[in-house]
Specification:
Helix content is about 45%, strand content about 15%. The strands form four sheets. A seven-stranded parallel β-sheet has the order 3-2-1-4-5-6-11, with helices on both faces. It has a two-stranded parallel sheet with strand order 7-10. α1 links the parallel β1 and β2. α1 packs across α7. The structure holds nicotinamide-adenine-dinucleotide and 2'deoxy-thymidine-5'-diphospho-alpha-D-glucose. Nicotinamide-adenine-dinucleotide binds next to α1, β2, α4 and β5.
Length: about 325
């Protein structure tokens, strides 16, 4: 594939993917990232300059995107506004980046006839009841709940339309909740880990019964590389690692792994429209493409993630106070 253009490559999952590509392939990578509050140069520190180049810019900038597509052999599109709570506070940037940004990339893919892989989320399918025996599959109808997930659903539909109407060489993947290094402290797991490090009690929304299906970001990266190499153009692949856990159990496990009492957390105001449960059936990518996750054990992956936040306080500390001040205004 040669040179990969990775949008959002300075964010959480995008930077994990760039590290994965450098470790496991010979490709060079050009990262296009606006460096919003969620993007950090430091997430790409230590990568070889001859293999990875960062271009700071907006995926909505058609002229910039056009030039970068001309030089790319394939494109992986991670850039997004990604946090549900922010989308409830101010939806506008979600429409700009997730919808208009994806449209801008698709038009460049059409003009330059470039292979593009679009990164999406299981949240496009809405949520499941706690006792529902079914999980999401590639044929589950779209039913998003939040401004964030509805813009991601919209971006997926744009990709499908550009494949069918213009023959764009695209694939889509919808992944479940990721954890691992380089995740912003606004998100659930890093927020609670860094709370404990700072001596703040973890904050659980509502009763904490909500279930998320956790996958390590490095497993997400290997799945995306597999789709890029062997996926069928026009197809969608669900990515998950059979990692269902309720939020209460995750907070208790974090506290236990960090040497605190399992009860040392607070219940805070619930998220508006809070999705109850996500669960992925990843049979298609496993059987058709032969992919499997490596981090089968959530507990040891979480312990390694705790260790990473303990040893990388310089990476997250400047974001922490602002995030907690924002949540305080919401009673969370
Ligand atoms: P993130 O918020 O950590 O990173 C997003 C990155 O995109 C940041 O580096 C940011 O600077 C960049 N960006 C934002 N707007 C941009 C713009 N207009 N132009 C260029 N760059 C811009 O997000 P994440 O958690 O790493 O998620 C990455 C992708 O994976 C998103 O598309 C998200 O929907 C999807 N996804 C996330 C998860 C998860 O658990 N976090 C699960 C499934 C899918
Ligand atoms: O399912 C994939 C999605 O996972 C991605 O598309 C999103 O980009 C990503 O942010 C994530 O969305 P969630 O809303 O599930 O993740 P978040 O980390 O915000 O919250 C996880 C769960 O924890 C959710 O049920 C809300 C709850 N929560 C969150 C925070 C920040 C708490 O109980 N306390 C908290 O402080």
């Amino acid at each position: 594939m040669g040179n990969l253009l990775v949008t959002g490559g300075a964010g959480f999952i995008g930077s994990n993917f760039v590290h994965h590509v450098v470790r496991n392939t010979d490709h060079t990578v050009t990262v296009l990232d606006k460096l919003t509050y969620a993007g950090k140069r430091a997430s790409l520190a230590g990568l070889p300059a001859g293999r990875v180049k960062l271009v700071v810019g907006d995926i909505c900038d058609a002229e910039l995107v056009d030039g970068l597509f001309a030089d790319a052999d394939a494109v992986v599109h991670y850039a997004a506004e990604s946090h549900n709570d922010n989308s409830l506070h101010d939806p506008r940037p979600f429409l700009d980046t997730n919808i208009v940004g994806t449209y801008t990339l698709l038009e460049a893919a059409r003009k330059h006839q470039r292979r593009i892989h679009h990164i999406s989320t299981d949240e496009v399918y809405g949520d499941l009841e706690l006792d529902d025996p079914d999980r999401f599959t590639e044929s589950t109808p779209y039913n998003p709940s939040s401004p964030y997930s509805s813009t991601k659903a919209g971006s997926d539909l744009l990709v499908r339309a550009w494949v069918r109407s213009f023959g764009v060489q695209a694939t889509i993947s919808n992944c479940s909740n990721n954890y691992g290094p380089y995740q912003h402290v606004e998100k659930f797991i890093p927020r609670q880990i860094t709370n404990v490090i700072r001596g703040i009690r973890p904050k659980l929304y509502g009763k904490g019964e909500n279930v998320r299906d956790w996958i390590h970001a490095d497993d997400h990266s290997s799945a995306v590389l597999t789709i890029l190499e062997r996926g069928t153009i026009g197809d969608t692949y669900l990515i998950g690692a059979d990692g269902e856990r309720d939020n209460k159990g995750v907070v208790e496990l974090i506290l236990e792994l960090m040497g605190e009492s399992r009860e040392a957390y607070d219940h805070v105001r619930d998220r508006a429209g809070h999705d109850m449960r996500y669960a992925i059936d990843s049979a298609k990518i496993r059987t058709e493409l032969g992919w499997a996750p490596v981090y089968a054990d959530f507990e040891s992956g979480l312990a390694a993630t705790i260790d990473w936040y303990r040893t990388h306080e310089d990476w997250w500390s400047e974001s922490k106070d602002g995030v907690e001040a924002f949540y305080a205004t919401k009673g969370q």
